[in-house]
Each structure stands twice: as C-alpha cells, then as structure tokens.
Amino acid sequence: GVSTYEDINVGYSNILKISDSTYYLYYSGMGTELGIGDTNQRLLFAYSTDGFTYTRGFPQGVTPPVSGTNLIANFNLREQHIFKVCDSKYPYRMIANDDHYNMMMYKSTDAIHFDFEHGKKCCIGSRDCQVSAIVRGQTIKLYVRGWRKDNEHPLGTRAVTIAYCDIDENI
Q1: What is the value of pTM for the model shown?
Q2: Cβ(6)–Cβ(74) below 8 Å
Q3: Got the DSSP string for 18-66?
Q4: 108/6 Cα distance (integer angstroms)
Q5: How far apart (Å, rounded) are the C-alpha atoms in residues 38 and 29?
Q6: Which one, of 146, 122, 142, lies nearest residue 134 by Cα?
Q7: pLDDT, tens digit, 9 for 90 and up, residues 148-167
Q8: Does position 84 have pLDDT exceeding 80, yes or no?
Q9: DSSP state letter for 171
C-alpha cells in the first residue's frame, strides 16, 4: 500500500541503473504523516530487478536510512537527481533542493545512504532546481530549471540555466 509519506502527492522522480539486474527509483512524496497541510516533500525509494516493476522498500540485506520506511530522507528535500561519478570512495551523488531552495550536493557510497550532514551548496545563489547532470571525468555539467523573479517578471518565471561544478562540489 501507499505510505502516509506519499498519500497526497508523488513527483520528481529519477531512476538509476546500478547493474544489469538492479535499478533504484527515487521519488518525492507529500503525505499526511505530520497532518493535513504539511507541505514537506520527503525522498522515497523503490527498487527493481528489471527496470519495469518496482517494489517500495529496500533490497534484502539493506538497512533502511529511516527504520521501518522506504524513506531516503525524512526531511524537506525535493527536486532530486541521483547519479554516478568517478570516485572510488563515494561513487554516487545527489543534487537536491533543501528547505531554503539551495541546490545542495550530497555523497553516498551505495546510492541509498547519503551524507546529509556534510552536503555542500553546489551552485551560487538560490534556485528552484529541477536538475539533470552530465558527468565528464571530474566535471559535472548541471542543467537547471531556474527561477527568476525581478521587475520585468514580478510573478516569476522559469528558465533553463547551466552551471558547472566538480565531483567535490567546488563551483
């Protein structure tokens, strides 16, 4: 069944191919676990052996980051993109918006347990990011759906911008 972490809304998803028979699905969810009106988006997880049929939860033998749930993060985290980089110690990266719409980068050894305590802002300025990343060696090219609000666009407008950083989050 659907958890109370995702019973209102589900969105912002991406799939990461781990191996020929392992796929990870990351998606944001809004739910009633903190009551109606909670607007926090949590990051949820499902996995697949064929890339078509997914199971909520974690593969057998994997300790969930948030015990008893299919949550990767139990705090407001949205518009994520998870991808692989050339780093033998931390081969996975996540870029996501935090509570203040800062585009943050987090590292992981297994694409499930991310180091949220040591995330770094990976783009100058605050963005409403829906990001896609292309990795070439140590460089990450970010295609970012940015948000612009100024005198010409008082209600705001969105546009795709490009930003660069390296795999260690240096801008």
Answers
A1: 0.84
A2: no
A3: EETTEEEEEEEEE-STT-TT--PPEEEEEEESSSSS-EES--TTPPPSS
A4: 24
A5: 11
A6: 142
A7: 666 776 666 777 778 888 88
A8: yes
A9: -
